Amino acid sequence: MSKVFPRIGGRRALQGAAAGAVALGLLLWWLLPLGEKPPSGTITFSTGTRAGVYQEYGERLRTALAEDMPDLRVRLLTSAGSQENVERVATGKADFTIAAADAVQTYALDGRPGAGRLRGVARLYDDYVQLAVPADSDIRSVEDLRGKRVAVGLPDSGVRLIADRVLRAAGIDPEKDITPRSDGIDTGPERLGHGLDAFFWSGGLPTDGLKRVAETSGLRFVPIGADLVAELHEQGGATRHYRATQMPESAYPAVQNGSAVPTLAVSNLLMTREDTDPRLTEWLTRTVIRSRDGIGAHVHSAQLVDVRTAIYTQPLALHDGARRYYRSVKP
């Protein structure tokens, strides 16, 4: 039996069409500014090691930027990590980067060149400190690392910065009480049990370099308790950016066996310089927020990017272009 639908009057139809057009217009305005030509040119984005989250996020963001700004060329530059990234942007060697908040604060406290020119674009996601050992290791705590061969990250990485602080908080001199190794995420996980007794990593969850080893060779994570985080805070300065947390059981299910691991976390910031073009920064900020789900499908940490928390870029003040975007979408 056919159904007879009520007839919609001309006036009501016009009102519905108008409402739909307004809704569509608002959606398009949020995604891309109507009638405005996208920025063009070339920018340099400093990422991280090739097997790390910074590098993968940078690659995915470059793809998203190409959709919104097809005439903008994004040059990716690998790095040792946060410390090198901060220095590159501060001194003009790169235009944008990602760095952990403690590395940003340390750079400023040390009075390094260009520190006052740094500006925040967005708070992205948190790095979790991940202290990995072979599954059959007798290492059960940070204190047990004394006398061991420990990978503490590349010299200019955020891992090195935080690993040294964690070791000192546990009463271990990172230069005298362990045999330090400079392995990063590209080599460290595979060397566990083969020249390395333990491996420090600070990154988003999960990090592919560790996930692969966890699913094949087996490893275990050593807890970093709240007492150590309290000791870190006693060191003062940039350690205020560390907070006690737990690595969820879903991070590396193959080895965590349903258990969370006590550790510490620090925020990651997308950053630039104060002299970066405000219009370019506004467009880039919009793309970062708009592309969260697309990037997050490949970089799990990126799923946590949120317009409501992105504005909290301490210790950096927001760039004018980023502030302009956040004001435009404020409820």
Walkthrough of the structure:
The protein has 331 residues and is an alpha/beta fold. 37% of the residues lie in helices and 20% in strands. It contains twelve helices and ten strands. It has helices spanning 10-31, 53-68, 82-90, 101-109, 158-169, 188-191, 208-216, 226-234, 253-256, 278-290, 292-296, 320-328, and strands at residues 41-46, 72-77, 96-100, 118-134, 149-151, 179-181, 198-203, 219-221, 243-247, 261-273. Strands 1, 2, 3, 4, 5, 6, 7, 8, 9 and 10 form a ten-stranded mixed sheet that branches. Helix 2 (53-68) links the parallel strand 1 (41-46) and strand 2. Helix 2 (53-68) packs across helix 10 (278-290), helix 5 packs across helix 8 (226-234) and helix 10 (278-290) packs across helix 12. The radius of gyration is 23 Å and the shape is globular. The N and C termini lie far apart (47 Å).
- The dominant shape is globular
Low-confidence stretches: 1-8
Mean pLDDT: 90
Radius of gyration over alpha carbons? 23 Å
* Secondary-structure content class: alpha/beta
- Number of extended strands: 10
List descriptors.
331 residues, alpha/beta, ten-stranded mixed sheet, 12 helices, globular
What is the topology?
Elements (H helix, E strand, L loop, with lengths): L9 H22 L9 E6 L6 H16 L3 E6 L4 H9 L5 E5 H9 L8 E17 L14 E3 L6 H12 L9 E3 L6 H4 L6 E6 L4 H9 L2 E3 L4 H9 L8 E5 L5 H4 L4 E13 L4 H13 L1 H5 L23 H9 L3
Task: Provide a compact summary of the structure.
With 331 residues, this protein is of the alpha/beta class. The protein is 37% helix and 20% strand. The termini are far apart.
